[in-house]
From TrEMBL:
Residues annotated as domain Type III secretion system flagellar brake protein YcgR PilZN: 23-128
Name the UniProt record assigns to this protein: C-di-GMP-binding flagellar brake protein YcgR
Originating organism: Pigmentiphaga kullae
Translocase as UniProt keyword: no
InterPro entries linked: PilZ_domain, T3SS_YcgR_PilZN
Keyword 4Fe-4S on entry: no
Top-rank taxon: Bacteria
Amino acid sequence: MREHPLLPLTPEPASDDASLEDFRISQPLEILTLLGRMAEQSEIVALVAADGESCLSAIAGVDRGRRLLWLFGTRGDARLEHLLASPWKVAVGYLDHVKIQFRVHNLQWLPGADGGRLACLLPLELYRFQRRSYFRVRPAVHPAPVVRARRGQADPPVELEVIDISMTGVGLLLPSGSLPFPVGTPLPRATLVLGPAIRLRVDLKVMHVTPRRAPEQGHHMGCTLDGLDEDGLRALQHFISQAQLRQSGSS
């Protein structure tokens, strides 16, 4: 499975379907083509429940005849079992760095070899997003940027290293053994330190906490990022632009 560590696997929030109308795809052939390409390229998808709990998977195949989407999964995985029991779930992935999102219906194990295969119904519609704000960069500066935040007003601040950042979100390193932040936790008035003289006040909200490849590497905590004033937005945009230039120069 091919993973994009710099791209956020969190669902696009929407208060109503109309807010996503410009991104909706409902033409069956186009849907089949996009999902088929994701399967061919073994693109990672995140399956996300209503409470934010998620697990990583990938599209194993597109069954046009039975109108099924086959997915990779492991029986007994606690996060997957939680998703199976959730009444609402969504899949989020990327194709050519474009965000693909769709509702997951009738996710279940179907009879087959090795204890069955994981499948859901082919979506009748999906959403394709392509905005500059989705492109994240991994800071290549020393010392690394950090976020200082409090779990509660009476708690001492904790300092978490920034793994990746965009104009609308930030990935933080939660060290192994650290007390986890529950999904949905707001972190208001946190401090984003991008450099010795660049400290920005931001409002964060925890969207997912995902284990990294090795247990000793801790967890990747993905947060939405909001609350910047005009000067803060300019400073963050400049930081991201400089990081993109450094990445382009090293590739």
